[in-house]
Amino acid sequence: MEENKEACKSNGETRVNKEDNNKKEADEKEPELPLMSLNHVSRLCRNVEDSIDFYTKVLGFVLIERPPAFDFAGAWLFSYGVGVHLVQSNDEDKLSPPDSAHLDPTDNHISFQCGNMEAIEKRLKELDVKYIKRTVKDDQSGNAIDQMFFDDPDGFMIEICNCENFKLVQ
């Protein structure tokens, strides 16, 4: 490395080449943050009761106790290791109108991993939830994932997938 520094001297300044910088960066990695997991997602609602009904019946969440210290209307739900916090909106203008006719997988959404896509699809049909279904195939590996997208009562998109079929980390 000293040879590289010496070879790069110019006008009294020492320049370090890219290879040296990469090694230095690898040696001086930032300590990892002490994050453990996703705790909850928060959803602003037109009607908390309608949203409780949706998340419990469609997705199997369980209503849990919400600390009384919160001075606004809402509810907490939990399942699958994550919470959904529902907050009653006091301003209708903050909410987009639900539009299940326009489900775009590239829009903002939350996604739940699923072990039985057929069971979820059956539940969506039974509850008359409009959804789109697609399969994405990785031509390189030959693996495919199935996805279903639908909106909650307030127009927040939800994805159900079997994404474990794609290897995400090399």
Automatic annotation (TrEMBL):
Residues 1-33 are annotated as: Disordered. Residues 37-163 form the VOC domain. It holds the Pfam family Glyoxalase. Signal peptide: none annotated. Residues 15-27 have a biased composition (Basic and acidic residues). It comes from the Eukaryota. InterPro entries: Glyas_Bleomycin-R_OHBP_Dase (IPR029068), Glyas_Fos-R_dOase_dom (IPR004360), VOC_core (IPR037523). PANTHER family: EXPRESSED PROTEIN, PTHR46142. This is VOC domain-containing protein. It comes from Citrus x changshan-huyou. The lineage of its organism: Eukaryota, Viridiplantae, Streptophyta, Embryophyta, Tracheophyta.
